[in-house]
């Protein structure tokens, strides 16, 4: 980063690492942190993925988020506006939006290495 404190406008965000079904916009990426804005289309379910050594915090701005995870994808939880979700490092998951409107979330990750690793499914 070129400055100790700076503002990142929506126009300055860049395309983040892709996962099918999700549009990530990268706002900040350093050696140990990633932060961005994510849109998930209505009725869409993302591909399975994890975030390597990163731990992630998700804040739901609008819409809904359903997170599938666990052995064989057998566990699920739902979140709505103003909810936070925590995702541990290496947790394989997929995100869905069961509503008829696009969902918006903010994601902040701490760790290192690649921030997104797409996989075929949970073990």
In short:
The protein is mainly β. The chain has strands at 14-15, 22-29, 33-40, 49-50, 55-62, 65-69, 75-79, 84-87, 93-96, 103-110, 117-118.
Describe the structure.
It is a single chain. The protein has 123 residues and is an all-beta fold. It has a domain at 45-104: Jelly Rolls (Sandwich). It is built from no helices and eleven strands. The protein has strands at residues 14-15, 22-29, 33-40, 49-50, 55-62, 65-69, 75-79, 84-87, 93-96, 103-110, 117-118.
So how many helices? 0
Radius of gyration: 14 Å
Oligomer: single chain
CATH class of the domain at 45-104: Mainly Beta
H/E element sequence: EEEEEEEEEEE
- Fraction of residues in β-strands: over 45%
Q: Let me know the largest β-sheet.
A: 6 strands, antiparallel
Q: Could you tell me the mean pLDDT? A: 93
Instruction: Bin the helical content.
Output: under 10%
Present the secondary structure layout.
Blueprint lengths: L13 E2 L6 E8 L3 E8 L8 E2 L4 E8 L2 E5 L5 E5 L4 E4 L5 E4 L6 E8 L6 E2 L5
């Amino acid at each position: 980063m070129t400055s100790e404190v700076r503002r990142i406008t929506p126009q300055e965000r860049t395309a983040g690492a892709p996962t099918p079904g999700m549009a990530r916009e990268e706002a900040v990426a350093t050696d140990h942190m990633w932060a961005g804005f994510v849109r998930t289309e209505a009725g869409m379910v993302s591909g399975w993925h994890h975030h390597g050594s990163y731990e992630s915090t998700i804040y739901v701005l609008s819409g809904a988020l359903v997170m599938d995870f666990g052995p064989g994808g057998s566990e699920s939880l739902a979140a709505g506006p103003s909810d936070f979700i925590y995702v541990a490092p290496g947790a394989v998951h997929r995100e869905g939006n069961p509503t008829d409107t696009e969902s918006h979330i903010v994601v902040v990750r701490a760790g290192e290495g690649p921030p997104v690793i797409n996989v075929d499914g949970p073990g």
